[in-house]
Amino acid sequence: MRIKKEPKVVAVGGGTGLSTMLRGLKKYTQNITAVVTVADDGGGSGMLRQDLGILPPGDIRNCIVALAKTEPLMTKLLQYRFEEGTLAGQCFGNLFLAAMCGISKNFEEAVQKVSDVLRVTGRVLPVTTDDVNIVAELENGEKVVGESKIGHALSDKKSKIKTISLIPQDAKPLPDVIEAIGEADIIVLGPGSLYTSIIPNLIVKGVSEAIAKSPAIKMYVCNIMTQPGETNNMTAFDHVSAIFCHGGGRIIDYCIANRQKIPSDLMQKYIDDGAQAVKVSQTRFTLEKIKLVEGNFVSISGGHLRHNYDNLAKTIFDIYINENKKNKRFFSIF
Question: Is residue 187 a contact partner of residue 12, using CB atoms and an 8 Å limit?
Fold first, then answer.
């Protein structure tokens, strides 16, 4: 199904969650802008960041692959991870992006060139081209610097995150990011790690303000499970509250949450790892006048829970269509 006069969608986040959702969104519209965090400092991306002085390419790569119009073999190649030698743990797509950066004026241009080569639907934009790191201030007063260190530190210190900030604090967004937000019909935050994939985008100077001013319908896709060390025991409403706190106000209209039962054997695996299903209370959302939309969004891939991107994308566009009908903006669907 496509919508005539395809809506402009801005999807904000990072990690596996954002790229998974993009696979569903591109079935409805080609006007997609993925705004991706660049604060990753771990794994293969962190190695390239340290060795070559480039922005971490991993989340960018995943979004490019999700939106690419390529043969399955090319997708498999871009996601191939070396298993031996000095490149062990490194992904070919990261190296490809790093090489393109070497023959481009800057990281932004490199991302665009790779997107052109792979015939990407829409655009993939780093939220900023500044070299940023995440700082987590904990409730016990301690601070943890670095995206890759936050989860482990929280488990060790047994303290929750109070606030997230960036170094440098005055990191500037790409002008194209602010422009895309201002022109959007739909803005979607998540799914993805709350404090290390979603909120880091919102605290880049000017991004939350642009979202608040945008006439778009604004949605947050809540994770299916809590993240050990990062969102322990947090409900869906707690996730939304953290977004409001860091975003400077009520910057979403809808929260989309899973209601589908998770197979017991897989649930036990997550419980053993310190995670649990995110609890959803309609009452909290009703009191705060935030629209809650629940659905069956569970998909299982390689023994891991993922969002069912077809169901998720359909829900996002159903919300968009219903809002337009209420506002008497009728259009055709084919």
Answer: yes
Residues 224 and 307: beta-carbon distance below 8 Å: yes
pLDDT at 326 over 90: no
Distance (Å) of CA 56 to CA 44, 53, 291: 9, 9, 35
- CA 306 to chain CA mean position, Å: 13
CB-based contact 72:50 (threshold 8 Å): no
Predicted TM-score (pTM) of this structure: 0.94
- Strand, helix or coil at 92? helix
158/140 Cα distance (integer angstroms): 9
- Other beta carbons within 10 angstroms of residue 260's beta carbon come to 14
Cis ω for the linkage preceding 72 (within 30 of 0) = no
**Percentage of the chain modeled with pLDDT above 90:** 84
Q: Which two tokens stand for residue 84?
A: 């031996």
* Separation CA 18–CA 61 (nearest Å): 12
Whether the ω angle into residue 56 lies within 30 degrees of 0, i.e. cis, is no
Q: Which pair of structure tokens corresponds to residue 10?
A: 């801005």
pLDDT tens string 210-260: 999 999 999 999 999 999 989 999 999 999 999 999 999 999 999 999 999
Tens of pLDDT along 164-175? 999 999 999 999
What is the residue whose two structure tokens read 């191939």? 80
Q: Binning pLDDT at 50, 70 and 90, where does residue 328 land?
A: low
Q: What single letter denotes the amino acid at residue 248?
A: G
Cα–Cα distance, 148 to 170 (Å, whole number): 22
Q: Cβ(306)–Cβ(19) under 8 Å?
A: no
- Say which amino acid occupies 109: E
Q: How would you classify the pairing of strands 9-13 and 123-126? A: unpaired
In three-state secondary structure terms, 12 is strand
